[in-house]
Amino acid sequence: MDQVIKTKDLMATGVPGYVIDLKCRPGGPWQRILPGVLLLGAGPPTRAQRVRAALVYAGPGTVVTGVDALHAHGLRPLPPPRRIHLLQPAASRRSCADHVLLERTTRPPAVVVRDGLPLAEPNRAVVDAARHEPDALRQHHMLATAVRSGLCTVADLTAELNAGSRRGSATPRSALRLLSALLR
């Protein structure tokens, strides 16, 4: 799917390791996109291919959250961050790769599957994205966009913030209080 496959899955189909190595050389038709994950194409990976590769790399039980999940839920005016944000089960010990932000959680989100991708439900995705956005103005824009679009309500986002980790939640809490006051 999306030309993304695990190296071991390709080998299980009978493709020898030396053929994979040959095809992944510079200028070859394939490339290693993450450790143990191949892109069966020579061009730069699309965002969708990078998301799929991150999920393949992170393994079962992993869920896309943050801005990439919001895009899949139909919220488009948010620019994609540098890293793809994934939630993984607390027992998982996969480490972060270059363009992947893996966050372990003891509170897995409700999962919505779209286009074969496991996504965090919108309230959780918005809160996760806001908690990892360092710019307060962009945080506010993200929260306001989600509320204006009808994807979330201020009350639902506040409840999600209260249920989760307090780390990185001060600015989103302040932005939600301001949004609540503006919507009265």
Structure notes:
This is AbiEi antitoxin C-terminal domain-containing protein. It comes from Saccharothrix ecbatanensis. With 184 residues, this protein is an alpha+beta fold. The protein has eight helices and eight strands, in the order βααββαβαββββαααα. The chain has helices at 7-12, 17-23, 47-58, 66-72, 122-131, 136-148, 154-163, 170-183, and strands spanning 4-6, 31-34, 37-39, 63-64, 84-89, 100-105, 111-114, 117-120. The strands form three sheets. It has a three-stranded antiparallel sheet. The protein has a three-stranded mixed sheet with strand order 4-5-6. 34% of the residues are buried. The mean pLDDT is 92.
Net shape: elongated
Q: Write down the overall mean pLDDT.
A: 92
Outline the low-pLDDT stretches: none
Largest sheet: 3 strands, antiparallel
Question: Which sequence of strands runs across the widest sheet?
Answer: 1-3-2
Rounded Rg: 18 Å
Total helical segments: 8
Oligomer designation: single chain
- Helical content (DSSP H or I, runs of 4+): 40-55%
How many strands appear in the DSSP assignment?
A: 8
Q: Estimate what percentage of residues fall within beta strands.
A: 15-25%
What is the H/E string?
EHHEEHEHEEEEHHHH
Overall domain count: 2
Strand pairing plus helix content: what structural class?
A: alpha+beta
- The span between the termini is 46 Å
